[in-house]
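Let's study my pick:
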Amino acid sequence: MAVLVTGGAGYIGAHTAQLLRQRGRDVVVYDSLELGRREATLGAPLVVGDIADADLVKATVAEHGIDAVVHFAAYKAAGESVERPGKYFATNVGKANALFDAVQEAGVRHLVFSSTCAVYGTPQSLPVDEAHPFGPESPYGESKRMAETMLGWYDRAHGLRSVSLRYFNAAGASASGLIGEDWTVTLNLVPLVMKAALGRIPELTVFGTDYPTRDGTGVRDYVHVDDLADAHVRALEYLEDGGETTAINLGTGVGSTVREVVDAARAASGVDIPTVDAPRRPGDPAAVYGDNRRAQELLGWRADRNLDTIVASAWQWHSTHPDGYDTPG
């Protein structure tokens, strides 16, 4: 039997598909290639299509003997979602609904869902655990919360059991050196730091230097993408072993400041990365980091790679692939 990875040509999806294959699983990638890259699939079978195409989804499940789904395909830019909420609800909720219908009708009973800590909004307490109240502050976060709610009802109605994995800040690149983050489609801090290190932007803008943190800059919980991939595999195994539908945070349990990320990048690259200070952005909390005890308890998972390893792997990827997958081989 095989695993269908929707959005498997994107950043975290590609790393998860790679690890599933390394661990002996048959994998089929399903991706529209709107934001994903064919090269990131590393030769895995690829079905190009829309997750809302129920006939194609069902045909793919039948043809490849799919018995589990890992669902990444979604839009994920929180800022854009505030400006274009319809785009996010149409895809992250409406098309996800169509996908859930199609796969359960085709007999799939296990699904791992790519969710986000954005379902919590600004933390009321730290570290953030799964009992923290919902308070999404963008249509992106709200759309992921709604998809999680749908999955709870799909279990009750159809027996489609699921694990929703609420990531904190995914970063880094594969230890294989073959895949990494495409900075043309992301506004995340680590690739922006790499752009500054490689001279693709003149300087890194540091938004907010007067937060009540150890150096005045914002604190976030950075998790290596290979550690996230490992959590998805473990979540799938948890369901296959009879685990119940649930949601689990994926964080390191500690936070790093913006200046600490920049310093780690300077050490990895040997470049004195230029920065410029700017005022806080509206809505940015001072600190966000996750409680990972539930992941340890249910999945036996914890993040193995620290900030230095994350940044060094990102530098290795971006410095050898300055134009991403379009870099000449």
Remarks:
- The chain is about 40% helix and 15% strand.
- The chain has a mean pLDDT of 96.
- The CA atoms of residues 260 and 307 lie 9 Å apart.
- The longest strand covers residues 110-116.
